[in-house]
Amino acid sequence: MKNSLVLCSFILFSTTASAQGYSLSCEDSRLLFPKQTLSTDKNLDVVADHSEITKGDTYLLTGNVALNSSAYYLSADEIQIKKSSKTSTAKGQVKFQDDELMFVGKSAVIKKQDEITHTTLNQVQFHYPDTKMNGQASQVVNDGTQQVFDDVSYSLCPLGNTDWQMKADQITLNSDTNRGVADDVVVEFLGVPVFYAPHHEWVLEGRGSGFLAPGFGSYDESVAGEENNYQIRIPYYFNIAPDRDFLLTLNQLSSRGSVVEGKYRQLIAGNKYLDDGRFEIEGHYLNEDDITSNKRWLLNSTVDLSLNDKTELSLVANRVSDQNYFKEITHGDTSDSALFSHLDLNYADTEQNLEIALFAENEQLINNGTATYTRAPEISISKAFEGMDNRKIDLSLVSTNFKHQTSTDTGVRTHAQANFSRPITTNAYSLTPKLNLSTTDYALDNAADESRSIYSFGLDSKLFLERETHLFGTDLIQTLTPRLAYNYTPKKDQSALPSFDSADKNDSYEGLFSGQKFTGIDRISNANNFTLGLESDFIDEETGDTYLSLKAAQTRHIDDTDMDSSGVLVSRRKYSDIALSADVSFDNFTFNNALQYDPETNKIDKRDSSMSYILNPRKFLTLAHHDDNTIKSAELYGAYPITQQVHVFAGINRSITDSITNKETTGIAYESCCWALRLAHFKKHVSGNDYDYVTNFELVLKGLATTSPSLYKRLEDEVPNYLANLDDF
Length: 729
Description:
Strand 31 (527-540) and strand 32 (546-557) form a beta hairpin. The chain has four helices and 44 strands. It has a 26-stranded antiparallel β-barrel. With 729 residues, the protein is mainly β. It is elongated and about 110 Å long.
């Protein structure tokens, strides 16, 4: 029978699934009866204890009767075969199997017309072994085009388990029209009806319109001094066409009112003007906030177009009615400081190593965010050349108009740059000389124009050594890579230049070898230094896994002049901090530690450490600590199974410096191979003593529906390493 289920297609709810990671052991090999191997030829194989001719071309077979063809297998206590009409009538302990499903029932009629097999089965149980779907029906009729299930119940629970099931008076499936129709549909959970629809239609293959799972949650309205407010979301999905759809949602907030949400998506087919594309627009509207009496709204739109095989266009517009919309209405994204909109036009010719781009953006501040510089617009072009013996030349030109909502220090920066390099690599060593030439012009709005031309030279060398070793009963290869680099950039006072996009780099391992202490273009620090580093890896000789990776580096400056973030030349010491890192990984344990050690004060200036013990994504513990010499924070993430079916999970990010909990997530979940239940509580710091509290409740009928389809995505962000999709079984 076609459309293995068919029944699943008329589901009124959304579903999410993942086949990766740890889950319950839900492998179930049980079948309605032992699976039979269908015949490989067109003949009908017949087995019976007794046979007799009752009338003309009618045969009566009794006692362990079995018919086997290339299309189906049929067995029963008694089967009557009428050759003239190609009809088989079975009675008593009927078993039927084709290439998709299995039936057991009281009686069956199988009739072959031309190449089509017509079946009628009565008082049956059905089972789809591949998809785990099973159920019961008083009668199932299939004419090769249309299937009709009368008085049917259906579930994706393991065979014999009906913790949840769907019932209908009749389900009709038509493969020619690709439509399914169900009458009087009831969803039962633990024997209690939880949903009813008098009539429903859907498409058998592809998407179909219908109600999705409603969502439930609670939140605290701290700005109004109210607690324990509730939220109910009722979504309806419109399948408009194969290339477009629309999701309409009523979001009822007890403290604010009714928010109408809509999301329209459309694929744009290729034509003579473009290859293909995608358009998406989302809007939320609250006519009158019960607390502020204001209209509240959100508008997000995205257009992605492939104009041709080399040109891409992206347009994104994000806006909300006010900066507190996410804190007070959606109770999400409360840590974001701004919404960004942009236009991005990119041309890339990989054969010619040529890229041309136009980019423009603006921002809307939210959640008491602070304004930043935006590019409005930026035009860039780059071209790469590669010659003999791996000689490389990279040319680039970028002109950016920097805007700022509050600062008067704005203008246009035009930067041209040429990079020359020639990597020389053998099995024993590598040597990479590089030369950079650049010029930067500033056309400022409220200050005199400025310019800067500068060059830099560098030489990076590595020596590759290795040996075989044996540790903890494992054959290993230890690599040892001494590394020496020289960087030179002349001194240049840049205090008159604005700082649009430059910031201090950390003295990380790779950062020291770059020869630059600032990100961006506005600050190009002077350099005349040597950087010495050492790398060592311990690698499993058989698997190639790296168990231990060690790195250390320090820079020695030839002169005592440095540049600060304002561009002024100041004095400095002769050496940098020592950048150290150690990464350990074996079995279920990982440890990562990167730090900057000051040999003058014998203190650690900065540190990032994390340690994880992961048996599986439902049983793990991760500890992390961050210290940048001004702010210290600690993180703890984990999950633990109390029983095979119940597990708890938690995540916390806390600032040690000011004793503020930035984020906190806690929850408990129950799951079986049939359904799952989860309660998750989120606490997020907004500002001062203001926190956002949200509690989400999720019921998952596995394979059918979840009442909170977006919850698992949030949990995966808030609790790293946690497998949050409860529909994974």
